[in-house]
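S2.1 Query sequence (ROK family protein)
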Amino acid sequence: MYNRTGSLDLIKKINRNLVLEMIRSEKKISRALIAKKLGLSRSTVTSIVNELIKKKFVVETGLGDSTKDGGRRGIELGFNPKSGYGIGVDIGRTRTLIVLTDLDGEIEHKEECKTTATVEETLDLVQSFIQKSGIEKDRILGMGIGLPGIVDSREGILLDVPALNWGNINLIEKAKTYFPFPVYVNNDVNFAALGERWLGSEGLTDNMFFIAIGSGVGGAIIANGELIEGHRYSAGEINCFIDREDLAQNRRNRPGQTGAFEQQISAFALEKSGVSPEELFVRYTRGEPEAARVINEFVQYLSITIANIASLLNPQRVIIGGGVSGSMSAVIEDIRQQVSELTPIRTEIKLARLGRDAGGLGAVAYVFQQLQDAEDL
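Output structure tokens follow.
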């Protein structure tokens, strides 16, 4: 049967989000102009704006310019990014980054520290971080925690995060005993992708693939503006990609072991040359033969992977991030050229811009999106 009430609620939510995003993007805009641009009635816009003002997400900034026919000047509205804050926690194998931002993603406080041995120690770190930030807990809207592995984002359960050895705990339930605000968890690469989409990319893109190359390798898919997590939350695990050469070399994907593809292009793989990835790329730019051999092989493996991703998913943009990406400016044109020769499907290929902050900022972006969908933002 047609659910009229449910449909009306959905329309109300869509309209609310449209109004909020227009105020956010336009900086200053009147109620009348919002109604005109969105094709909504003035009464609908007024009702939505009054609700947003009550929650302090929107403020009246003063009178706008007179209309062309000399009509009464409308009151302009502006987004209030300081009306709430979000926390992003990016937990890596060895280091943990914590950021606190306003609603525009402006970092108000940031700390990086050694990854702790237990979940309790990590949550204690966040408690201390909040105290040092000077922001009261009732002004924090939520927190996102990114982890290096497979996470049930709906229930908050760690499914396969061997790097931390925390077991299959319910991190959301544990966090509820520490914090009064909602907490969300997800894979760290998924959050890094959201961070780059929110604040790093040259223009917002709704269809992208993010590749993280660091001590390991991971991927994240954003399609039609939505994060694609897949069945059992394993979408984007490109570390497990395999080809015929892997089979010939008896490289397999086994539980608890490094993925076949990860063995070829991660920082760990590059370090087999005897130097750090950063030094290896420096030697490559100098034209040293051994460095050139290793990097050329790296570029070929990565280009084949991107070509296959482009052919399968047709993303507008592929963004390469992670620790190794900071050294890859010398090879990005080679990658673009090789990908164009391997597939007729065109995609933009860019290096990430947020660096180490991507995961933490993406965790905050995820929090704000979840709250906006729930009409708590």
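The mean pLDDT is 92. Residues 289-313 form the longest helix (25 residues).
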